[in-house]
Design a protein that fits this description.
Elements lengths: L4 E9 L2 E6 L2 E7 L1 H11 L4 E5 L7 H14 L4 E4 L5 H10 L3 E4 L1 H5 L2 H10 L4 E9 L6 E5 L4 E6 H11 L3 E6 L11 H10 L4 E4 L5 H7 L5 E4 L1 H4 L5 H10 L7
Helix pairs in contact: 1-2
Length: 251
């Protein structure tokens, strides 16, 4: 049985970690390198950096953050936000990232995922999907630009398409649950996990240790931010809790 992965997420803006609710009400949460080191020491399995502004004039800042983190943190690093070209991917991998996450650009140009997978290997390519319930309650749709624009694309069909384009993994964020601490969106996660064969990282809504136990019935990896950033519980404590419940984790 594969060990379940606990993945802290660091949203980075202008070189600082920030956190919001439903992608708004952003607050400063600290220095990214120091926070990443802390999670590494606590036993995190991976770390995800998301550049939430991702404009070209911030790109150098993010590269510096990745370089400094990779020098001191020795678990896999995934970097997302503003990945638009093969050169962007090359730059992040050269800076020390192990994987890159592609979101908006995949929607704008699905062939980009194919090109990226062919050029760098699907093990380095994560497709990030932000999804929310349709207003009529009938299924889920993909949203882009940090949740600010609806696409009308069905999330299940999109996950299948991204798998066929060469994505090695899907980072699935529930826009409805993000930052609420009310729990992962189990329904969304289950339907996507059942539709594809590649690994799914569940994201959005973690507030209690029991939320991880619940979502690990559907997926092998779960991502969270605020519960770790603000000390609600540690990665170490969460892993002990899960291990006591018989969940396979790396201690």
């Amino acid at each position: 049985m594969l060990a379940k992965r606990i993945i802290p997420c660091l949203d980075v803006d202008k070189g600082r970690v920030v956190k919001g609710v439903n992608f708004v009400n952003i607050k400063d949460a600290g220095d990214p390198v120091e926070i990443a080191k802390r999670y590494n020491e606590q036993g995190a399995d991976e770390i995800v950096f998301l550049d939430i502004t991702a404009s070209s004039d911030k790109r150098k800042t993010m590269v510096d953050v990745v370089e400094k983190t990779a020098e001191q943190v020795f678990i896999p690093l995934t970097v997302g936000g503003g990945i638009r070209t093969l050169d962007d991917i090359k730059t992040m991998l050269a800076a020390g990232a192990d994987k890159v996450a592609i979101n908006t650009q995949a929607v704008l140009n699905p062939d980009f995922v194919k090109e990226a997978s062919y050029s760098f290997g699907n093990q380095n390519i994560v497709v990030a999907i932000d999804a929310r319930r349709r207003s009529d309650g009938n299924g889920f749709e993909v949203v882009i630009y940090g949740g600010r624009k609806s696409t009308g694309i069905d999330a299940i069909e999109w996950a299948k398409k991204m798998e066929s384009c060469g994505a090695g993994e899907i980072l699935l964020t529930s826009m409805d649950a993000d930052g609420t601490n009310d729990g992962f969106d189990v329904e969304l996660t289950e339907v996507i996990a059942q539709a594809v064969r590649i690994p799914i990282i569940a994201s959005g809504g973690a507030g209690k240790m029991s939320h991880f136990y619940e979502i690990f019935k559907s997926v092998d990896a779960a991502l969270a931010a605020s519960v770790f950033h603000y000390g609600k519980f540690s990665v170490t404590g969460l892993k002990r809790y899960l291990n006591d419940l018989g969940v396979s984790v790396r201690l």
